[in-house]
Design brief:
Helix content is 61%, strand content 0%. The protein is mainly alpha-helical.
């Protein structure tokens, strides 16, 4: 009996018992619904991802959702890249950083219950195509010179080429789609708290017009590309 007790203590200390126990911990969907109010700013109250600008919550299972949230919180970028979410780390990590295991379990339970069986249409490819079409339209109609001028203030934190990691360890922007950049800017413009950078981003976005957001987002989408046409930039425009 003593030998068995010692074995159980050793297993618990090594974590061999902890993982199965955590895996069976049931979340509270009602508590998860309260937490999801912040997520809805980007992912939508219906979990639809704002027309493809953000990942959809529909069709996600409880275990899968919990694993992704834990990966964002714990910085497991290898796992996120393996499931096609590596480019979302800079946006999601600040939002997940303060989540407890209980918060994650509750959110996962709510998302699975509310949206889990919902994506019967199988239209992920259509959503992606729609997002790409929207980006193409924004790029075609945007004033890149104006977008570059607006970006001069963003560069202080995010870097001249959108590489990130400057003031306040700002997220990388290079490679972000125009539709995603525009959606984020509109969320911040509303004054919505969205992660640890909200205090800095909300004042920056408050006075941006729809045209400003369109131009800025379009410039962000092509930042770092050598063939950006700013040859007609007016004198006195802010330097990058």
């Amino acid at each position: 009996m003593k030998q068995m007790r010692r074995s159980l203590i050793a297993l618990a200390a090594s974590g061999a018992l902890a993982a199965p126990l955590m895996g069976h911990a049931a979340g509270d969907p009602a508590a998860g619904k309260e937490k999801y109010a912040t997520c809805a700013a980007c992912h939508g109250a219906d979990g639809g991802g704002q027309g493809g600008a953000f990942p959809k919550m529909t069709g996600l299972g409880e275990e899968e959702t919990a694993k992704k949230l834990a990966a964002y919180r714990d910085g497991d970028q290898d796992y996120l890249k393996s499931v096609g979410l590596g480019d979302r780390y800079g946006t999601m990590a600040p939002n997940a950083s303060g989540l407890s295991d209980g918060d994650i379990a509750n959110l996962a339970a709510y998302i699975a219950q509310e949206f889990g069986g919902g994506d019967a249409s199988g239209d992920d490819g259509a959503d992606q195509a729609a997002a790409e079409a929207a980006d193409s339209g924004e790029l075609a109609q945007a004033d890149m010179v104006r977008g570059q001028a607006l970006y001069s203030s963003c560069a202080i934190c995010h870097g001249e080429q959108g590489e990130g990691g400057h003031l306040m360890n700002a997220p990388k922007l290079k490679g972000m789609a125009a539709s995603q950049a525009a959606s984020l800017l509109k969320v911040y413009r509303k004054g919505t708290e969205m992660g640890q950078y909200s205090y800095a981003m909300i004042p920056q976005a408050t006075h941006l017009s729809d045209a400003d957001i369109n131009n800025l987002a379009a410039y962000i989408a092509v930042i770092g590309e050598e063939d950006i046409d700013t040859a007609d930039e007016p004198e006195g425009a802010p330097a990058m």
